[in-house]
Design goal:
By secondary structure, the protein is an alpha+beta fold. The chain contains 7 helices and 7 strands. Strand 1 and strand 2 form a beta hairpin. It has a 7-stranded antiparallel β-sheet with strand order 5-1-2-3-4-7-6. The protein has one domain.
Length: about 210
């Protein structure tokens, strides 16, 4: 999330995110996921045709949805229409979190054309692990459905309650990195900054492209 990354960058010397050897082997496959860098924040996008299990229930109410993009953040700050220093400082300490789901009728590459978007190719079982992990962190109501908190900041988006704790060292970027790591990609799950995540994602995309030739 942008606020935590901004605070960290003000007092940490951030080195390289760790490079992969030029001949490193990375998993690849016929399914796709998308990693989106939006300023200090990173999201993960999944094609709905590749989402199995309970996470697919989030498609309901969004006719024509083709992709779902997920981001993690500190609940009060994430959902606030206006934020100041009090909200920013509060988010440094353990607090409630939320997931912002955005339903897209176009690909993340098209929807976020002005952002840094990387498509990665994975085996279907790796995409399943990401989808299952996202579903696991969502708070469930008595009927077993995900608890929706409020509409998001733009059309097709909704805030969903998360059971995870947000703090300075468990941010949107560590969340993204952990999902990629759980999918079998060589991404450090403790990366704190968006550009660190994207450095590794960019490198993985290059290696995948070489392997798919």
């Amino acid at each position: 999330m942008r606020l935590a990354a901004a605070l960290l960058s003000s007092f940490l010397l951030v080195g390289c995110a760790g490079s992969l050897p030029p001949d490193a082997q990375v998993p690849t496959g016929d399914a796709s996921i998308y990693v989106v860098e939006r300023g200090w924040h990173t999201d993960i996008g999944l094609p709905v045709d590749e989402i199995a299990g309970q996470l697919a229930t989030l498609e309901h109410g969004f006719p024509g949805v083709r992709f779902m993009v997920f981001g993690f953040g500190e609940r009060a700050y994430y959902m606030a229409r206006r934020t100041g220093s009090a909200e920013l400082l509060a988010a440094m300490f353990p607090s409630e979190s939320a997931v912002l789901m955005t339903a897209l009728t176009t690909s993340p590459t098209e929807a976020f054309a002005d952002q840094h978007v990387v498509e990665l190719h994975l085996p279907q079982d790796a995409v399943d692990r990401i989808a299952n992990r996202i579903w696991q962190v969502l708070e469930k109501g008595p009927d077993g459905s995900a608890v929706r908190l409020a509409d998001g900041p733009y059309p097709g988006s909704v805030f969903i309650a998360s059971t995870e704790t947000y703090d300075l060292f468990n941010t949107c970027n560590t969340w993204t990195a952990a999902l990629l790591h759980d999918a079998g990609l060589p991404v450090d799950p403790q990366l704190l900054l968006a550009d660190q995540v994207m450095q590794q994602v960019d490198r993985i995309a290059i290696l995948q492209a070489r392997q798919r030739r």
